[in-house]
Every structure is written in structure tokens, then in C-alpha cells.
TrEMBL record:
Transmembrane segments: none annotated. Coiled coil: none annotated. Gene3D superfamilies: Helix-loop-helix DNA-binding domain. One of its GO terms (biological process) is regulation of growth. This is (wild Malaysian banana) hypothetical protein. GO terms for molecular function: protein dimerization activity. It comes from Musa acuminata subsp. malaccensis.
Amino acid sequence: MSGTRSRISEEELKELMSKLQSLLPETRRRRSERRASAAKLLKETCNYIKSLHREIDDLSGRLSELIATMDMNSAEAEIVRSLLHS
């Protein structure tokens, strides 16, 4: 017999969905509502991840613009460099 399982129990699935729901900002605000369906929760998770990617892209672009206009020998440039390398 193999030590790995290919299926998870219904209880484990409920626990995982509950943990996922607690991580999503939209579902945290709707605590009073009954639990969302698994399909709705997974769709909201995908949308949240996509929004995080857009935010990262936006912040990366803004940082690139800031660095391009910065005197690379300034104290501010040194701070940015230290943050990027930590």
C-alpha cells in the first residue's frame, strides 16, 4: 500500500476552504453571510490573485520610473538599493 493519498476527505476540504476564505479580503468582510460555495470561493481567489499581480506590476512600474529619475549617488538611491537587496 502506498503512503500517499490521492483524495482528501470532505472534512479536510471544508477546513481548507475555510482557511482560504479567511485569507480573502472580500470574504472576511462578509463574515455574517453563510459560507460561499466552493466554486464561488475559488473564483474569488483567482480574481484576488489577478488583482495582486496587477498591483505588483503597477508598483514595479512606479518604482522603475522613480529609479530612472533618481540621482544614483544620492542617499535616497542608496536606501532604494538596500531595500531591493534585502
